[in-house]
């Protein structure tokens, strides 16, 4: 049994012009101790999927279908009391905007201590000691003094470190990181990501890392899930995804990465934009932007399949390289030939 199993998850929002299915039939799993990267353009559904794990979807949004099983228990069936025990204790979250995640009227140290007291039967003194220890562990100097500082007295990078300390305060089994380095410069970003990796290894914590940065995924993740318009279009190990991508959307993302020594005048870009999720295209959702699209792509939505055997994702080997493209249903007549695009070699 995987630590986390998401099956056929559907999350929709009710807007004036219709129903937006931000996540539409998403399935994936995370093993104990592994780091799963979730990538895709803005609007792909990455953050909504992450918030759903802790049932943090507020109106006008709603989780309408699917299961989220954590250690075999369906989170969507948890009582409010069980959910309070789960949040921050077994599953913790590092939000995109650390400044917004911290309460401005309480000291940083007190907020971490509060998280400890909420899930552990400890004295105030023990909770304070734990908070100071965590601040030291995440690299905040003079932690005992900084315990009494307010969030506005911390830099952006230090705020993010404090949020990580809070998330790790109860030794969670799963850490959900929703673009945890947004707005930080590259030096601080590297430090934060290395800190997350080291602490996750120390605490034996699995990580779900949502990011736009494919370089971060290459360095920090074990497996990758590529999302497009609310659905998974590819899933593989990092090595397989980077050296042999199977979906045209992933190929487009890879081709847009600048490389040292690249002498191209312009980086390739995926034409068009993410579709309106109120009125998604018929067939494959990516076909209006896909250079390999054929008639079948406009008519039928391809299932997520093992790219080698054609077996449905639900029945495929857990380590199989999965892709949702008609190339792997056998219905794409011309086939895909995009090795040149991926590697940036001379044509």
UniProtKB/TrEMBL annotation:
Gene Ontology CC, one term: plasma membrane
Domain of life: Archaea
Matches recorded under InterPro entries: AAA+_ATPase, ABC_Ni/Peptide_Import, ABC_transporter-like_ATP-bd, ABC_transporter-like_CS, Oligopep_ABC_C, P-loop_NTPase
Signal peptide per UniProt: none
One Pfam family it belongs to: oligo_HPY
Keyword annotations: ATP-binding, Cell membrane, Membrane, Nucleotide-binding, Transport
SUPFAM superfamilies tied to this protein: P-loop containing nucleoside triphosphate hydrolases (SSF52540)
GO biological-process terms attached to the record: peptide transport
Topology relative to the membrane: Peripheral membrane protein
GO molecular function, one term: ATP binding
Subcellular location: Cell membrane
Protein name: ABC transporter ATP-binding protein
Organism, as annotated: Haloterrigena alkaliphila
């Amino acid at each position: 049994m995987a630590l986390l199993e998401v099956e056929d998850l559907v999350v929709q929002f009710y807007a004036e012009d219709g129903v937006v299915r931000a996540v539409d039939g998403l399935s994936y799993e995370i093993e104990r101790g592994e780091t799963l990267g979730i990538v895709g353009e803005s609007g792909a559904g990455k953050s909504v999927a992450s918030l759903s794990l802790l049932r943090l979807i507020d109106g006008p949004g709603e989780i309408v279908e699917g299961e989220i099983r954590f250690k075999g228990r369906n989170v969507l069936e948890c009582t409010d009391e069980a959910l309070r025990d789960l949040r921050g204790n077994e599953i913790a979250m590092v939000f995109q905007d650390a400044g917004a995640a911290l309460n401005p009227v309480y000291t940083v140290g007190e907020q971490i201590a509060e998280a400890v007291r909420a899930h552990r039967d400890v004295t105030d003194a023990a909770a304070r000691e734990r908070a100071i220890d965590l601040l030291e562990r995440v690299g905040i100097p003079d932690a005992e003094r900084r315990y009494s500082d307010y969030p506005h007295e911390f830099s952006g990078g230090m705020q993010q470190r404090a949020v990580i300390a809070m998330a790790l305060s109860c030794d969670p089994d799963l850490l959900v990181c929703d673009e945890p380095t947004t707005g930080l410069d590259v030096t601080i970003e590297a430090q934060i990501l290395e800190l997350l990796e080291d602490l996750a290894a120390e605490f034996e914590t699995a990580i779900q890392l949502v990011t736009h940065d494919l370089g971060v995924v290459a360095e920090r993740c074990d497996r990758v899930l590529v999302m497009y318009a609310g659905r998974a279009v590819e899933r593989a190990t990092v090595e397989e995804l980077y050296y042999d991508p199977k979906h045209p959307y992933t190929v487009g993302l890879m081709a847009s990465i600048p490389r040292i020594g690249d002498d191209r005048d312009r980086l390739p870009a995926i034409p068009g934009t993410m579709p309106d999720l109120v009125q998604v295209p018929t067939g494959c959702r990516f076909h209006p932007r896909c250079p390999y699209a054929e008639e079948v792509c406009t008519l039928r939505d391809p299932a997520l399949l093992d790219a080698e055997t054609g077996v449905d994702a639900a029945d495929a080997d857990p380590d199989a390289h999965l892709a949702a493209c008609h190339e792997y249903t056998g219905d794409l007549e011309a086939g895909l030939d995009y090795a040149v695009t991926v590697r940036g070699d001379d044509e």
